[in-house]
Amino acid sequence: MTETPWVLQAPLPILGALQLLPLVGAGLVVVLRARPWAPHLGQATAALECVLAVLLLALLDRRSSAMQLAERATLVGPFEYHAAADGVTVLFVLLSALLTLLLLAYSAERKLSDPIRLQAVILAIEAVLMSMLVTVNLLWFVLASGVELVLVGYLLWRWATTPEKDAALARFYHFQGTGLLLLLAGALVLGWAHADLRDGRISFDLLDLAGLPVPETIGSIAFFLLFYGLAVRTPLFPMHGWLPTVAQYGNIAIGPTFLLGIKVGVYGLVRFVFPVLPEAVERWDHYAVAFAVAGVFYAALLAFLQTDLRRLMAFAVVSHTSLLVIGLFTLHAAAFQGAMLLAVNFGLAATTMLFMIGFVYRRTGTTALSELGGLFDRLPMIGVAFFVSGLAIIGMPGTPGFDAVHLVLEASMDRYGALLTIAAALGNVLAAGFLLLAFQRAFLARSPEGWSGGPLERATPMETTLAFVVIALQLIAGFYLEPWLELVEAPLNALGKVFAEP
Asked: Is the pTM of this model over 0.85?
């Protein structure tokens, strides 16, 4: 790093508050569940969490690349509480707080079973996510990730929409459990390497690990363990096998939003892998990019073959996440910025599309494309929200993805040349094709013959409001992108200086 690693300690424990508030809210929701106003308590907690996230943004010195607002407490051995934030942290904290608030509004409108317990689980997941985002202890990040996956797995099982939920959950835990074990192994390798090089003292702290002269072989082993572990979560081809099944047979929007909307895998790469193992990243970057390029086309082509809207969305996520990973492994500061903004853009857009699919499923009882059609006449705002989100994912002007994609492609041109960049751009064109095809078949095509479901219920005021809000958020972010670029510029420029110029 080019700066002192810390600025002054936090004037107030805002990072601790971000982690504890959702837990307190979850407990109160359960304890006070008999009160008539209890269903609104979860939403109030999520709204207050958004206020804390905005306060964190206000307290951050955007001009500094240093980790700020530090909080630290010794626990047991190397497992210590150590939290801090920079611009990248704040960006993901804001996204997490916003998506959780939207999820609670969505779940209330869907009128899912056992709403009090659902609110408590959502808030508990938010608390664990906040802990993952603000920690600078790699072991803490890994263990918190395990807790989050248990909670998300319970959510997928308890509020699944199909009888095949057990098979979907088994596949979910098979992949995610393997990824978690790889992450844990990578963390332990780095901890032991620190002990070997630093008088026997084990540490998983980012500041200790970032300056560690890791031997080449150990560095490569740690890189592959951490990279593969995070690739399962990202999800990156070919570690994505859990996603289509979970998307089709698990919960429609709530679980997938936590898994896909908040790009924890991408955040983990930028927070822990790139600063700690820069030599290994440079040594194996072409390997990662090869997987990503293959994933762009593989997922895009499979998306065209899907007959279910939820499975199509799953392959869309894999295709576009691959483009994001290409940006990261250009090892260029501008591409880092583009990749972070793409992560937030994809998160918000994919969440919006999942919400709209959930509203469609509520009325039709299906997400099979052959059984959908003519929805735009009855659900115009839901259709517009789906369409705008599709445009955001492919990076159309006026959406946050537009400038972000250009930053990624320009850096890719410098690093890898025209051929790979053109290939990535063509993958984005394919994405435009299958997303527009999905919109056309579900919303604009004629209703299928033999439809016996009766007239579709029009969108409720709350559904219309939610659709309008997510459309507005995407367009505002698209036309007013400069503050978000400024937020991540300093820390990502500092990360870019770690790597040699290509």
From this structure: yes
